[in-house]
Design goal:
The complex is a heterodimer of chains A (257) and B (321).
Chain A (H helix, E strand, L loop, with lengths): L1 E5 L2 E3 L21 E3 L1 H16 L4 E8 L1 H14 L3 E6 L6 H15 L4 E5 L10 H9 L2 E12 L2 E8 L3 E8 L2 E5 L11 H7 L4 E5 L11 E7 L8 E2 L4 H15 L4
Parallel strand pairs in A: 1-4, 1-6, 4-5, 5-11, 6-10, 7-10
Antiparallel strand pairs in A: 2-3, 7-8, 8-9
Chain B lengths: L2 E5 L2 E2 L2 E2 L1 H12 L3 E7 L7 H6 L4 E5 L9 H15 L3 E5 L2 H13 L3 E6 L1 E5 L2 E8 L4 E7 L5 E5 L16 E4 L9 E7 L13 E5 L10 H10 L2 E4 L1 H5 L20 E5 L5 H7 L4 E6 L6 H4 L2 E4 L2 H16 L1
Parallel strand pairs in B: 1-4, 1-6, 4-5, 5-12, 6-11, 7-11, 14-15, 14-16, 16-17, 17-18
Antiparallel strand pairs in B: 2-3, 8-9, 9-10
Helix pairs in contact in B: 3-4, 5-9
Classes of the chains: A alpha/beta (257), B alpha/beta (321).
The structure holds flavin-adenine dinucleotide.
The site of flavin-adenine dinucleotide has 28 residues of chain B, from helix 6, helix 7, strand 17 and helix 9.
Chain lengths: 257, 321
């Protein structure tokens, strides 16, 4: 069975974000790029499934500027994935474009056993790629998954939704499953794993060769930094005074009670 | 005049506040407002939808829609949109909203923007803004190649209008969806939570490692009872197993934007701030005057949370009387 994991490269959570001069994006110089944290759960789950089903392979798929995206792909390969596919694309693209593009790439690969994604990419936080990919492939999907098991041609997934509610679903496979925290504990890449990853094959496809146009549905413009916030008002005095003062400020000044 | 469809989320015969916010925004812009509501008890909320501005309500009361099945919901929603022919769709950026409209957007080949925090409707145009890079900046989203513009709004961002009890609605029944072929709901285990979900709460009081242990959360619960608040947590305490992951606020937890967020014994790591910096008023209680949370706070108290919070709860009780 061929298991696919769709991954994205995003700025490190600690990275400082600055806007570019034309305010239509961020200044990418000096940014440290990492594998999207949710995608680590997706890779881990794919590797677990590979271990459970004989004759399986794990292929990681990504889209973006090849020269840096390959770094995150090596992280996944070092964790144990077998090979990779990069759709090289220099320009900005949105989730809708990524979904139609990756759907085409996967269709061209032939038989799909299972597809994992992260719940959302923490950069633009659209959180719609999983569902859109499934739609284009005419497969079932579930996102925000915290438990997964597969038997024959169905899989059972648990997802947690608002209010602490858990839903248990059964999907016909292949299906597109979006991983979140709680699903597993992603392994660290071992040193031999990292060495091996360097030699694992990565197939390159140029986005421009796929012949898509008008796939972009959303474009981000007029970027802004968050508004300056007034300095914090520290409340002094002994505990009794502080508590009284704060309650009164919340009621009379902030008017939030 | 723009035609707007609002997707209705409801619970126990009550339309959720997030939906009321959207209806109010659509109505006050002068748009022609339609609502879509699904499930066997959908009928029970039709009147409310009318009172908050819907002129038309598309309704499918099939019991197959009582639990969210992406396959069935996508089919019914697409059929409603094909009938209603609206310019703009508004829904909450809830888990259901995202899951459903992502798929709907792909099927109808149209654009969707999720997690928006600003919305302005004027005539036929819609302007939205959303936080990017965990709230480190924001941007306006422009729709391209999109016959229908789908906007998913974070809850608690917009005012709710005054209901008009004399308003009437026209109901359009939708056909029940065909049986699902790929997706079966096996079980829905309702949470035992007595409080609103964090993403819907107007007031949140959160605890971090400074609460010492799971028992320490008791004083947060007491404060929450007084405030009618929901209780959140940092990842450090979720990872320690003191509270479930559904209570985690932050980059790998929930993104919240309540009117009031009270952070107790939370240092204010960037990944925590990512989930709550959109809150209108932030209170920080921490014994370390250098804790980064104070840089984001509106009001701060340096002190031991076990001394400060019980006192604060008492004071809140008295100002709320
Ligand atoms: C990829 C990634 C994703 C992450 N996602 C999240 C996320 O979603 N949410 C999240 O919260 N974190 C997240 N983190 C973790 C984050 O970096 C911090 O480790 C975490 O937020 C710290 O939690 P804390 O503030 O409770 O604990 P600490 O940082 O240990 O802070 C405890 C605070 O309590 C104070 N304190 C102690 N005792 C008392 C007392 N008696 N009275 C008052 N104050 C007291 C201390 O002064 C200190 O400031 C993520 C990290 C990574 C790398």
């Amino acid at each position: 069975m061929r298991i696919f994991v769709c991954i994205k490269q995003v700025p490190d959570t600690e990275t400082k974000i600055k806007l570019n001069a034309s305010q239509d994006g961020i200044d990418e110089s000096g940014i440290k790029w990492i594998l999207n944290p949710y995608d680590e759960y997706a890779v881990e789950e794919a590797l677990n499934l590979k271990a459970a089903e004989a004759d399986s392979t794990v292929t990681v798929v990504s889209m973006g500027p090849k020269k840096r995206v390959v770094d995150s792909m090596r992280t996944a390969l070092a964790m144990g994935a077998d090979d990779g596919i990069v759709v090289d694309c220099e320009q900005e693209f949105d989730s809708a474009t990524a979904a139609v593009t990756i759907a085409k790439v996967l269709k061209d690969e032939g038989s799909i056993g299972m597809i994992f994604t992260g719940m959302t990419a923490i950069d633009k936080n659209a959180g719609i790629f999983n569902e859109q990919l499934a739609e284009h492939l005419n497969l079932a999907h579930t996102n925000v998954v915290t438990k997964f098991s597969k038997t024959g041609d169905t899989c059972s997934v648990e997802r947690s939704v608002e209010g602490g509610t858990t839903e248990v679903l059964e999907l016909k496979t292949p299906a597109v499953v979006g991983a979140t925290k709680g699903l597993n504990t992603p392994r660290y890449a071992s040193l031999p794993g990292i060495m091996k990853a360097k030699k694992k094959p990565i197939k390159e496809i140029a986005f421009s060769d796929l012949g898509f146009s008008d796939t972009q549905k959303v474009k981000y413009i007029n970027y802004q930094m968050p508004p300056e916030k007034p300095p914090v008002k520290m409340i002094e005095g002994d505990v009794a005074v502080q508590a009284k003062e704060l309650a009164s400020l919340l009621k009379n000044e902030a008017k939030v009670l | 005049m723009a035609k707007v469809l609002v997707f209705c989320e409801y619970n126990d015969g009550k339309v959720k506040n997030g939906t009321l916010e959207l209806l109010s925004a659509a109505q006050s812009s002068g748009a022609d407002v339609t609502a879509l509501v699904l499930g066997s008890t959908a009928e029970s909320v039709v009147e409310q939808l009318g009172h908050y501005g819907a002129k038309n309500v598309y309704l499918c009361s099939s019991a197959d829609l009582d639990s969210y099945n992406p396959e069935l919901y996508t089919e019914v929603t697409c059929s409603a949109l094909n009938k209603a022919q609206v310019d703009i769709v508004l829904a909450s950026s809830s888990q259901m909203g995202r899951d459903l409209f992502a798929r709907v957007g792909a099927r109808l080949n149209t654009g969707i923007v999720s997690d928006c925090t600003e919305l302005s409707l004027q005539g036929d145009s819609v302007k939205v803004r959303k936080p990017l890079y965990s709230g480190k900046c924001s941007a306006e989203a422009e729709f391209l190649n999109s016959p229908t513009k789908i906007v998913l709004m974070r809850q608690n961002q917009l005012p709710i209008g005054t209901p008009d009890a004399s308003a009437s609605v026209e109901v359009h029944n939708l056909e029940a969806p065909k049986a699902a072929t790929h997706t079966t709901i096996k079980e829905v285990v309702r949470g035992a939570m007595k409080r609103l979900d964090l993403t819907e709460a107007n007031i949140i009081i959160s605890g971090g490692r400074g609460m010492k242990d799971a028992d320490g959360f008791k004083i947060l619960e007491e404060a929450a009872d007084v405030l009618g608040a929901s209780v959140g947590a940092s990842r450090a305490v979720v990872d320690s197993g003191w509270v479930p992951h559904s209570m985690q606020v932050g980059q790998t937890g929930k993104t919240v934007a309540p009117t009031l967020y009270i952070a107790c014994g939370i240092s204010g790591a960037i990944q925590h701030l990512a989930g709550m910096s959109g809150s209108k008023v932030i209170v920080a209680i921490n014994k370390d005057p250098e804790a980064p949370i104070f840089q984001k706070a509106t009001y701060g108290i340096v002190g031991d949370v076990f001394e400060v919070l019980p006192k604060l709860t008492e004071e809140l009780k008295s100002v709320l009387q």
